[in-house]
Amino acid sequence: xxxxxxxxxxxxxxxxxxxxxxxxxxxxxxxxxxxxxxxxxxxxxxxxxxxxxxxxxxxxxxxxxxxxxxxxxxxxxxxxxxxxxxxxxxxxxxxxxxxxxxx
Length: 103
Description:
Blueprint: H1 19-33, H2 37-46, E1 54-55, H3 56-63, H4 66-79, E2 82-83, E3 95-98
Helix pairs in contact: 2-4, 3-4
């Protein structure tokens, strides 16, 4: 590697994150590739009319989009529309809140 490649190199090891965080990152990477913008917009409208906190599963049911709804909610967490504890595996039982900043 020559010196023009990068100014800094950072080594990230499995000690820098939990297995759950790694799983969430893998899922996010996969879900971004199949993002459904229409469903993301439907979710964005829905989150302004429901009372939080809700579990991912409850919000998924209200969205009425099955597994694709889970993916939309998951992406909304990583997009900053919803907040959840990302240090734990995000599943149907994960509690979500409306993120305070939700342009």
